[in-house]
Design goal:
Blueprint (H helix, E strand, L loop, with lengths): L5 H17 L19 E2 L2 E2 L10 E4 L8 E5 L4 H9 L1 H7 L17 E2 L5 E2 L6 E10 L10 E9 L9 E5 L8 E3 L7 E3 L5 E10 L9 E8 L10 E8 L5 E12 L1 H9 L10
Antiparallel strand pairs: 1-2, 3-4, 4-15, 5-14, 6-14, 7-13, 7-15, 8-12, 8-14, 9-10, 9-11
Helix pairs in contact: 2-3
Length: about 280
Amino acid sequence: MRHRPLFLIILFCLAATLSAQKQPEKKAKPQNLVKNGAFENGEGKTPKHWSPFDGFTARWEKDSGNPGRCLLLDTTVLTIDKKLIDADIEAFEKRGRSNASGQYDTVGAHQGAWAYAAPIDIKPDDSWFILSADVWADQPSTELFAPLVLIRGFRKITAETAGEDTTWFHEHYKDGIGYSDVFGSKDLQRASREGDYLQVYRKTLFCRNPRIKQWRHFEVGFKLPSIKKFRPERILIKPYAFWPSGHYRFDNIVFRRATKEEAEAANKNLPSIKEVLQ
């Protein structure tokens, strides 16, 4: 049996090493902390990992997303109908929509419409983030009125701090956990309890677009506070629409960890408010 010359074996090994070194490293895709942010998974009238949709002000649409499924917020629903939907949806479905009309009688002129993604717990070393979304509307934005994606940050109330704060606590997920807010009905106003979450942080992604019925991508970068009192332990992502009364679609909502450089680069591409002032 003939043996390969030693120098050929050395050349072969050297070539294999150089080839391996030339292969570019694959950068890991950042994790989207919003579960089912593209609204593709689930059954019934609410997508998986989202707060319950009422099927009227918040609807899960099948084929009108960017692409596929999406969230539709309908702010043309009358306030009197929304009250009955919340109180007794079966009675509303039997009665149907009211015959009353008037743009100032809609939820868009009052509380607006929204949905909540599943809670996101923040790690101690988390700092910079980017929030992005694709948004569509059949009404043009103005400097004051546009669809939004709200970031709400909370700290958990312990046995030691329970009862210190009295405000409106909403149970968005029907799981007995209350999240404080600056508005609500009288029946939601109470003292804090152990296990509730107190709101300590706010950030907003403004989705202004002067063009109607066109999808547009929006994103914003930001850094969480380092001061303990204002640093959230849990984040809720809330697509929201109000005025003018209309139909607003949201899709591909992404909330991810980022570097300072990535966040600052995202903010350099923020749409100018001048677009809606022309």
